[in-house]
Amino acid sequence: MVPLNGFNPIVMTISEPPMAMVKINSDATTCIQRNFGTIAAIARDDNGGPFGWSRKKIKGITDPLILECIACREATILAKLQNMVEEDSQVVINSISGALIPQSRVTK
């Protein structure tokens, strides 16, 4: 249970993945008053045990949609670090890992 500013707690449950699979959940939250957001991703095995995780505080970003996109990106990076992703597009992999795509490689 997660207390919410002294109000009724929120009960959070995460379903386990199917047998021999890993499931990654990601989420984001924002604190407009302090001008930051937090994103997290956790990978769980088929027993529900943690397989890997990531959490980051991001200063200056409070837009929930942008934070959710960053959380999704973080989940993808976590999958790549755990060798759960086979790479076949260098442009996409560079984008996911934060590398800039040179303008000459972008087609219109």
Q: Output the number of helix runs.
A: 2
CATH domain class name: Alpha Beta
What fraction strand? 25-35%
Name the helicity range: 10-25%
Question: In one word, what is the shape?
Answer: flat
Radius of gyration computed on alpha carbons: 17 Å
Spatial strand sequence of the major β-sheet: 3-4-5
Derived structural class: alpha+beta
Please describe the biggest sheet, giving its number of strands, its sense, and whether it closes into a barrel. 3 strands, antiparallel
Q: So, CATH architecture?
A: 2-Layer Sandwich
**Which stretches of 5+ consecutive residues score pLDDT under 50?**
104-108
Tally the beta strands. 5
Protein name: RNase H type-1 domain-containing protein
Organism: Hevea brasiliensis
Protein described:
By secondary structure, this protein is an alpha+beta fold. It has one domain (2-105): Nucleotidyltransferase, domain 5 (2-Layer Sandwich), CATH 3.30.420. Helices cover 23% and strands 32% of the residues. It is built from 2 helices and 5 strands, in the order βββββαα. The protein has helices spanning 64-81, 90-96; strands spanning 2-4, 7-10, 23-31, 36-44, 50-59. The strands form 2 sheets. The protein has a 3-stranded antiparallel β-sheet with strand order 3-4-5, with helices on one face. Strands 1-2 form a two-stranded antiparallel ribbon. A hairpin with a 5-residue loop joins β4 (36-44) and β5 (50-59). The longest helix is centred in the last third of the chain and has 18 residues, at 64-81. It is flat, with a radius of gyration of 17 Å. This is RNase H type-1 domain-containing protein. It comes from Hevea brasiliensis.
